[in-house]
Amino acid sequence: MREKPNIVVIGTGGTIAGRGETSSNTASYDCSVLTVNEILSSIPEVSSLANLRAEQLLQTGSENFNNEHLLKIGKRISEVLKDDDVDGVILTHGTDTIEETAYFLHLTLKSVKPVVVVGSMRPPSAMSSDASLNLYNAISVAVHPTSRAKGTLVVANDEIHTARDVTKANSFKLEAFRSPYGALGYVVEGQPRYYRMPWRDHTVSTQWAIDDLEALPKVDIIYAYGALDERVIDTVASDARGLIYAGTGNGNVALHIVAPLVAAARNGVHVVRASRTGNGVVIRNGAQPDDDYGWLVVDDQAPQKARILLMLAMLSTPAERSALQAAFYRY
Ligand code: GLU
Question: Whole-structure pTM over 0.90, yes or no?
């Protein structure tokens, strides 16, 4: 048994790697300027928790992350986790799209070792920055045996969230992350306390392994409103293989948008009804005859999460509609 666990901290940028001109710059600052080594060396407390090895994989705001970034991050973490000497991984990440990367890892990594994704809402240079405590808490979670086999976790503001559920729900407050069914637990003075388990399949019980993935199909999201121009649907459908329609309320579709979405589905584009509320379930064959139109529904997934899941589900052969729909009810 090692005296302290070995944790690899992989840096990708974000506000946690940011720097403001003054300590009152809590909201305007340069993003992605500190290296992961610089961040760690400013928090001496973390060395009591684990033997840490830092690695800089990317250095950019997470709003820039595309499918290639997801694959690069996933493949590197997978490689690191295969090392018997590594007990867990921390990924430092911008908070904007932390939920998408974390969910992608949750569905594709094949390991029970803890993987914790962490960011901050204020840069380390700001008054009352959450950067050091979030990172300290994330490492506390990664070293704890109760964190194993729970899939990818997101730690922020003293809470531990499952990657499946968490979304960034506020643009500037420290209390920015929300899971519709609540967090899995808290972190109190370096000790995780869990109260729930992720219910849906993840990591070792999914059908995808990051090591086998080379590319992801193009899936786009369209945000609905009454005056949406139907030509937007045609343009997106002409070159995407999947389309998440972030409809109003229960995935509702305006009358003039029905025909272009039906045409898209007939032309082989996988059309998925989601809700721009980002919360609650979209009922299959409820407000729309999904069976007749060849459409799918997200169950309860936010549109940006649904995009990740649809891209992966489409890789399974054959990507039949019924199999794709089943993926939304399974994961
Ligand atoms: N550009 C940042 C990002 O990487 C902003 C948000 C943050 O990290 O808190 O997502």
Answer: yes
